[in-house]
Amino acid sequence: MSSIDDKIDFNLSIEQKNIIEKSLNDEGKLDCIKAFKVAKKIGCKLEDMSAITKSLNIKITNCELGVFGKLEFSSKDEKLYEKLKYEYENLKIPCANLWQEARNSSLRNVGSTAKNSDIEVVYCQLGCFREKKGLKNGSKS
């Protein structure tokens, strides 16, 4: 998966690089949820995180909304799904909007609903993707 802007040149300080490195998981990757915290700690824009990590040969993984990674999710919340279906007719919902929706329930509930339905998460806040192309749950999305 390519980040939105791979060609940005970042001049990170040693301290900023250390913050990123200390935040990596056991596989040497940066979990989505930690990337949000790291962006704040190193003082960068959220949408630059994918390009920053890519410049350091680090991958972002475990999307909280189930777009990529190995997180396990429960079944979708039918009531939440119907609400989102009503609000977003085409079911292409920006990541930021889903995170906002999570304030009314939980990120895990919203992620489970997105992962286990025909909702397409678009415009990753971390800059990992604009629109997800290809397969989702074994079928064309």
Description:
With 141 residues, the protein is an alpha/beta fold. The chain is built from six helices and six strands, in the order H-E-H-H-E-H-E-H-H-E-E-E. The strands form three sheets. The chain has a two-stranded parallel sheet. Strand 5 (135-136) and strand 6 form a beta hairpin. Helix 1 runs antiparallel to helix 2. The model is unreliable at 135-141 (pLDDT under 50).
Number of helices, counting only DSSP H or I runs of 4 residues or more? 6
Order of helices and strands: HEHHEHEHHEEE
Arithmetic mean pLDDT:
90
Q: Main sheet: which strands, in order across?
A: 1-2
Strand content: 5-15%
Form type: elongated
Computed CA radius of gyration, to the nearest angstrom: 15 Å
Q: What is the number of strand segments?
A: 6
**Structural class assignment:** alpha/beta
- How far apart the termini lie comes to 16 Å
Proportion of helical residues: 25-40%
- In the predicted model, the low-confidence regions spanning at least 5 consecutive residues are 135-141
**Biggest sheet overview:** 2 strands, parallel
Summarize the structure.
The protein is α/β, with parallel strands linked by helices. The chain is built from six helices and six strands. It has a two-stranded parallel sheet with strand order 1-2. It has a two-stranded parallel sheet with strand order 3-4. The protein has a two-stranded antiparallel sheet with strand order 5-6.
Which keywords apply here?
141 residues, two-stranded parallel ribbon, elongated, 6 strands
